[in-house]
Amino acid sequence: MDGSLVLNLRCKRHQPSVNDLPDEVLQVVLYFLPAEDILCHIQRVSKRFYDLCSQPLLWRYHCVLQFKYWDSKHRLHQKLAGEVGDIDWKALYLYRRGVDDKTTRFLESILEAQVDRIQHYKSIAGFGYNAKDTLLRHCRTDDDAPDVLARRYYANSVLDHIHRAEALAEWTNVARGKHVPLERALGSFDLFVLHDQYGDLLEISTLLDNLEVDFRVEYPSLDELPTRRKALATVSFLRARDLTGIESELAYRDLQNNYIGIALQDRRNKHPSLPLISVAIFCGLAQRVGLDARCCGVPNHVHAMVYPPVGETLDGRGLNEYEEVEPMYLDPYRSDDEITKQTLHRMLQSWGISPQEYSRFLSESTPTSLILRTSKNILATVHEFRGHAGSTGNTGHPTIHLHANPFADMENAFYSALWANFVFGRPVSTPAGADSSEAFTQRQFIPLILERFESVYPMDASLIEDYICPMFNRSSNAEHWEIREALRVVRAADSTPKQVRLRDTKSSQDGVKYKVGQVFRHRRYNYLAVITGWDVECGMNPDWIVHNSVDSLSRGRHQSFYHALVEDTSIRYVAEESMEIIKIESPTTLMSLAGRFFKRWDKENHVFVSNIRDEYPED
Which residues, 6 or more positions from 372, have their beta carbon under 8 angstroms from its beta carbon? Predict the structure, then answer.
């Protein structure tokens, strides 16, 4: 046989194939392929490829690559630190992919109809932090998506619900006496206003960890310093980076100053924070570098206190037999220097506190007291802001803008303060005359929480059932029936299909001039709002009509009235004659709120596109 023919035949019989590659090369190649392709195609090629596609190291890589947030039950950090073969990483990846699919399906159900949303929220919340990656993806939906506003709104809303559940679980641990780092106890307030931003509890800890790294780079001999010098170096480091205090006392009551996560990140405004948050940041960093740093509950202005190691003084000298251990005091909010005890005594004296009580006020504050102080600071800001509404002497402070619509931020902050006071208030069983350092009982905050639950946070039904109901499970308690009735009403409204409102009568066709989705400005109060519903004539009860002087209007009660979402987050009922329909390029102040009722903003027609056609199909 001709030699060239033999060679050609051999070449044909031994065409190069991917199967000729060694396992080590194929394993590397797999890292560059999408996980979906590996699961749906490559692992089905042969038994060899199935085995290669099942290597734990490959799926650990995809777990870390594709999923940033993990529920605490997985103990991911411990898993990553252990032997790779000890965990079925492929099964874990498949579980997370399943959570992603289910979360998306439940979210789609929320978007499609106005019924059974509470159950869909609960189903997603059941996945805990495992659902966060999916929700964040929907929160950041492209601007040109057909339902961009609705998808972003409800993804954020579900995420807010999960964050609130996380915060309440953290506070419950504090209330039960479990050790919870101060940054997490105070960071739980951040969770109520976080939305889709960076700064949850783990991320706050990461920010402090990164600060420690920077601190040690700047002070390479830090561990060799005695306690006093190390504490002063910590204060100087933080203050040099504007990580404590505020730039102007005029901004003291600004809402953002109450949040440790915002303070650690907000470079634009020089990381503003109230004294309590400044001290918490100091303690978080100081403890990471080996200092025994604590918060000291001086009235009106929290300080830090630092103790030396056992058997030492603050300057590193050994203690004498009869020498007492004394802490040093610091005010990271406004000073690089140590604060003497005599200075603090004079401060207490100026406030009318007797010397016998000095030791009580110069001792360590409990996490509970610091949480309650933060809640009172938030309430003070909310009350001051509301008191300044319309005031001619308003200086522009306090401000309430955090991450989203400022009025929504304020409502969420207020809600967090109510829950904090409920969790850490005196138990309902405490006798009325019993002495307590706290002025309120848990019972006093229930009506306020229920009011907001019914009007703003119906998705929190499970939180009401988990945290409030167990304390009033006896039918002899008046609150038992009040809570049960609130839950019944909210769940009934959620499960009942909306009444269909058709324009099929002469009065609805001729009398109802405007449509759902149109934007208007109120002729008298000048607020901006969008129509979310209508009635042919005033549908309120006689008391409401009298209270709002409806009959004094030129067209009285027998004109169309409209339900409207206002830029301050309120829902109002407005007479047609009080509305001036406007066409603007983009109603900016309504955009983050409108997703509750609308899919998107129609730029050409200057209207919001309805997502409540199950109720108003012709609008």
Answer: 420, 421, 424, 438
